[in-house]
Each structure stands twice: as structure tokens, then as C-alpha cells.
Amino acid sequence: MADTELDERKVKILNAIIKNYLETGEPVGSRTISKYTDLNLSSATIRNEMSDLEDLGYIVQPHTSAGRIPSDKGYRFYVNNLIASKDKEVSDMKEWMIEREEKMENLLKNVAKVLASNTQYATLVSAPSVVSNKLKFIQLSAVDENQLLSVVVMDGNIVKNKIIHIEKPLDNETLLKLNMLLNTNLNGLSVDQINLALISRLKDQAGIHDEIISQVLDTVADTITEDEDLQVYTSGATNIFKYPELSDSKKASELLDTFEEKQSLIELLTDKNTDEETGIQVYIGDESPISSMKDCSIVTATYELGEGVKGTIGIVGPKRMDYENVVDNIKSLKGQLDKLLRNENKNDS
Amino acid sequence: MADTELDERKVKILNAIIKNYLETGEPVGSRTISKYTDLNLSSATIRNEMSDLEDLGYIVQPHTSAGRIPSDKGYRFYVNNLIASKDKEVSDMKEWMIEREEKMENLLKNVAKVLASNTQYATLVSAPSVVSNKLKFIQLSAVDENQLLSVVVMDGNIVKNKIIHIEKPLDNETLLKLNMLLNTNLNGLSVDQINLALISRLKDQAGIHDEIISQVLDTVADTITEDEDLQVYTSGATNIFKYPELSDSKKASELLDTFEEKQSLIELLTDKNTDEETGIQVYIGDESPISSMKDCSIVTATYELGEGVKGTIGIVGPKRMDYENVVDNIKSLKGQLDKLLRNENKNDS
DNA sequence: GTTAGCACTCATTTAATTAGAGTGCTAATC
DNA sequence: GATTAGCACTCTAATTAAATGAGTGCTAAC
């Protein structure tokens, strides 16, 4: 519908205004556009068109007799065009300095860091959520008389430990039996396949050691909750000071709090109306699900580790961010990450 | 020496100036002091004394004909007095809402949070360093054909995992033998007791599987480096915006960067000229080992988990922080933490 | 040694002025 | 009918000037 609303000339002018504003951060006036574009129109004509664009809600005046700046609707129009056009041409992927790291944690921290330093915005990366992940291996071992160590390995080599306190020492044989029981019954199952029926069957078979089974399953449960809730890595939060419109102390403080309290960033990552085709989602201003980011734009992309296990990378910056560069960067990073993680996974299993 | 430098009246005036400045954050003038103290001196007399104090370097004027503010030397004098006097009276411990948490990580995060919200400054808490910790238990298990999982448990129930890739599957017997070898030789040793001689003896005995031994020892090494280098939890970094003298965007940005890059905070925690008696260390302004904190004061305390395993809690705020309250808070928190962790440790072993 | 008194300094606040960018509208032009 | 030149008008931001006031340093008197 936006197509019928704007004729070609208006589109050109609108794009010119936005591009110019992205560069300068200053309201842009009619005279600037008159020179900036190849339309060869006088400033007066541009003024008329701008007046129309304002009526249509694509641009606004910060105050009477200032230039115009894009409204959220204007940005939205620009971004939609941008993503559409980028779909056609195969954007030449930037090569990233991502090296396979020992631990995924370090890898992801590094991704956040590199992205932040490349874009000069704040970034966040969420660890792949393991909701539909499968159990690969369980091991119970006696650390000492009163303590068992339960180790759970999930697909993708996510390892979780838990120390279990016990009243009486377990003899080796029982331990072996419990290990057997756990592994034969649980290995290969995804977390949501472990239902009450299965649990009670296990406990039955464990006899007096049913309490231990409970605790092991707690460890498994931990793997979900903890990973899903908390694993968000951020970097470059202080980049927001580079953009005056975000760096007044009240706004900045709220924003930085959000980054510190990573918990709340989850909102961004669970939102599932991501563009199916590109896997990229752009929130502009009020579109953001997080209120402290009402003056920001956010670009996120979902990467896949396979089997429905997904994580997200995102950047947060001012509304006048360099969408083109950011989308490019994030798209290519997503690609690299997809590839890297799948390989890693393949090597591992 | 400071004792002979200042007579009693000067001390009273200096303390009055500092106290007043801590409260208001404004330069304090002679007239204020004349009323504020019970010395019954006219402002003119105070002026003379202040002039002396300035000559001696305890206070400075931000500009001609403004009131005085404490210099670093002035703060230092004040703080020294404060800590000395506090040593005598048993400060009544505040009760904290610290609950035993499943994981030490969560506990420490929580400590940082509570302290930040109590003091309204930025806080950091380092996990206990395990340098002199002992190995308690090692377990190698086969996850699948090409992967071993090595689990290392240290004293204090710090658990580390590592996935080890192997070329050929190991049979059960070999695995058992390796486990035996590792546990009999290493259990009970502290990390610095594992020297080259021991390592090569182990490798000898492992025969063709010496590579696996190496990797297990890597895991052990990880436990040190990673824990020592990285485990710092912070909270309330944005509190610095509450203090105008820190919140101009350049300073704030540097400071927040330091908090984000937790790595660099280590400096604060390894510095070992902590007051032996109280375990509390105060850095004022330039005394700070971290350059981005030249305009801050820092109060740290070391807590002990026993056996020389130490961690640190600290707060970072403006130079005109409420030292009294902070020292009190941190002292009591340190106490609680000491107690809590020792109990926990006792329960566990 | 203490104090009253006064001249002087300098940051902060307020007000007034100016300069400049940009618009909207009208009338002329293509 | 679309485009443009021209001009009056508006509003911000920058500049300047003046007023305010807190606080000092010094001197002379107590």
C-alpha cells in the first residue's frame, strides 16, 4: 500500500532525506536535498513535496522552521526497501575473525565483541537455547562418601554438573546400576520427552535410590531453565555515548541498566515474528519490545545450530543507525556462525 | 606525622569541612563551618585556619573565591581516622539477606546486587581464587566413540569439564586404568604441586595414551586460569550517574567500559597491600591501580573461604562517598560471607 | 589570638541581542 | 498545471552583557 501512496519522486526525496539524516544527524532542509539529489528541482519544489511527505507521516519537523527528520514510519519505509533490495543482490560476505573456541561461551562473547567494535553499536548474543536438545550422556560418580557428582551432556556438548548430597555411601555396584539405568532410559531423548510416566518408571526401578534420580533430573531441568533464561552476552554497551540523542544521563542509564540486567534482554530474543526468509528482524523505536529502547533501533538475526536449536545475535543503536551496514554485518555474521556451529556439531557427533 | 602537623582545632575544622562536603557535594565556605561546628569561632578565624589547611595540602579551592573541597590527602586523613576509630567500637553488623544459593556464581552475583542497591555505588565481587586449591576427584568417561569427557572436581566443589577428542575409541578397561592412574596420583594434590616430574611420570605410565593425560591436565590448568582471570561479578555500574562529578559522558563511558571488561578489574583484587587487621583497603583517587578510576574512591575487602582461598568484594564510587557507611557495609558483608562460605565448605567435605 | 568590615574575584544566572537556517506562501514563469 | 523566485516570518542557537552572590584575603580594631 505504501507503494501507491508515494510516487517515484517522493520516494527519491524521502530516501535522500533519510540517507542524509543518517549521515549528519541533523534535520535536513529543502535546499540540501535540492542539491544532494540528481532531480534538478528547486528548493521550493522540494519544500512542497516535503510538506506532502510530512502530511503522510514519513517525516517530522522537530520544531517550526527546522529541517525534517524521518519519523518511525519513514525509517520503516526505508528499512523495508533496504532489506527487499538486499535480498536480490548477493551481498558480499565480510570475512570475520571468528575462530573456533574451546568453549561456546568464549566464542559467543567474542562474537559480541567483534560485532560491537565493527559497528560501534551495542551488541548482544544469546547462547543457543537447548529446549529441544537431546540428552547424550549421563554420568554419576562418587566424589566422596557423602557426595555424588552428576554430569549431564546434551547434544551440542553442553555439559552440566551438579553435586548431590547423599546420606549413606553408595557401593560401586549400585552406582554402576544407576548409571546404566539412566543412560539406557534417557540417552537420545529430548528434554520434553521426559514426562512423568517415564520419571516414575525410573524411580520405581531405582528403588530406594529414587531420590538420586530426582536430583539427576533436576540437573537436566537446570540445563533448560538456566540456559534459556540467562545466557546472554553483551558488548560495547558504552558505544551509546557516541550518539548524543541517547547519551543524556537518564536515557543512557536506563539503557545500560537493561544491558547489565541481561535477563530483560530475553524479550528481544524470544519474539518470534522474525522475517522467515532472511531471519532478520528490525525494530524501530516504539516497535521495540523493551521500553528502555524506545529511542533506539534494534536489528536481530537468528542463527541455527540445527534441529531447531536457535540463538540470536542483535545490535542496539540509535534510530539513525547505519542500517545498511548493520544488516550486512549481521547477515554475514549469522552465516558464519551457522556454518561454524554446524560443523562443530558435526565433528562432535 | 600527620598528628604533629595538625592541632586539634585544625583537625576539627578539617573533619567538619569533609563531612559537610560529603553531604552536599558543594565546596564549603568559612561561614558554613563557623555555624556548623561547636567551636564558636567567627568565619574570619575559620578562614585563617582554612588558609593554613590549604597550605598543608588537605583542602583545595576549585577556583579563587569558592569554598574549599578536600584534596586526596584530606580524604586520606579522614579515612585513616575513620578506620582507626571504627576498629575500637564493635560496629553492629547489619543483617544481610544472603541466602545460600545452589551455585556460588548466583550467590556472588546476588551479593554484588545487594551491596549495590544498599550503597548506591558500583560494586564488584570476585569469586574465590583457587590457586592453592586441591584436586578432589577426576573422572574420565566415554561420551561416544570419538569423545571423552573429563571432569575435574576441586576442593570447594568447583567442577570443570572438558571434552577431549580422540582418534580411536578406548575400551572400558583402558578407561578404568586411566581413571585409576589419575586419581591415585593426583587426588589431594594442590595445583602447584603438579610439577613436570609428576607429569612425565604420569605420561610414562599412560603409555600411548599420554595425550589424554595432557588434556586432562589442561582442564586442571583451566580451572586456575579461568577462575583467576575472569570470575568477577559486577552490579550497579550505572549508579555512577547519580554523581555528577562522574557522569560526564567521557568519564562515565571509560568507567563503564572498565566494568564491562571485567578482566581489568582484576587489578583491584590482586593488589595485596590490604590492611592486615581489618582486611579492608581504601583507594582514594590517584591511589587507584586502575586509571579510569582516578576520580573515584574504591573500598575493597577480602573474604576467605579458608586454606588461603580468597575472594574480594569492592565498591567503586565518587571520592566524596559515604566512607563510613561503605566501610561498615562492606565489613559486615565480608563477615557474613566468611561465615557462610566456611559453613558451606564444611558441610561439603 | 580573634573578629568585624570591606574590597575584590570569579562562577552562575538571567536577559537581551543577533545570526542563521528553513519554512510557507504568493505571484510570476515555463 | 507544475515549477520556481522571492520574501516575510518563525524559531533555535550562539553571543554578549549585566546582575547576582557566595566566598575569599586583608587590614585594622578589639
Using only C-alpha atoms, the radius of gyration of chain A works out to: 26 Å
Low-confidence stretches of chain A: none
Please list the strands of the largest sheet of chain A in the order they lie side by side.
7-3-10-9-8
End-to-end gap of chain A: 49 Å
List the helices and strands of chain A in order. HHHHEEHHEEEEHHHEHHEEEH
What is the compact description of this entry?
2 copies of one chain form a homodimer. With about 350 residues, chain A is an alpha+beta fold.
Task: Describe what this molecule looks like in 3D.
The structure is a homodimer of 349-residue chains. By secondary structure, chain A is of the alpha+beta class. The first copy, chain A, is 47% helix and 18% strand. In chain A, the strands form 3 sheets. A 5-stranded antiparallel β-sheet of chain A has the order 7-3-10-9-8. A 3-stranded antiparallel β-sheet of chain A has the order 4-5-6, covered by helices on one side. In chain A, strands 1-2 form a two-stranded antiparallel ribbon. The longest helix of chain A is centred in the last third of the chain and has 26 residues, at 323-348. The mean pLDDT of chain A is 84. Chain A binds chain B through residues 102, 136-137, 139, 141, 143-144, 147, 149, 151, 153, 157, 159, 161, 163, 234-238, 241, 247, 249, 252-253, 256-257, 260, 347-349, and chain B through 136-137, 139, 141, 143-144, 147, 149, 151, 153, 157, 159, 161-163, 165, 234-238, 241, 247, 249-250, 252-253, 256-257, 260, 348-349. Chain A binds a DNA duplex (30 and 30 nucleotides) through residues 27, 29-31, 41-45, 47-48, 50-51, 61-67.
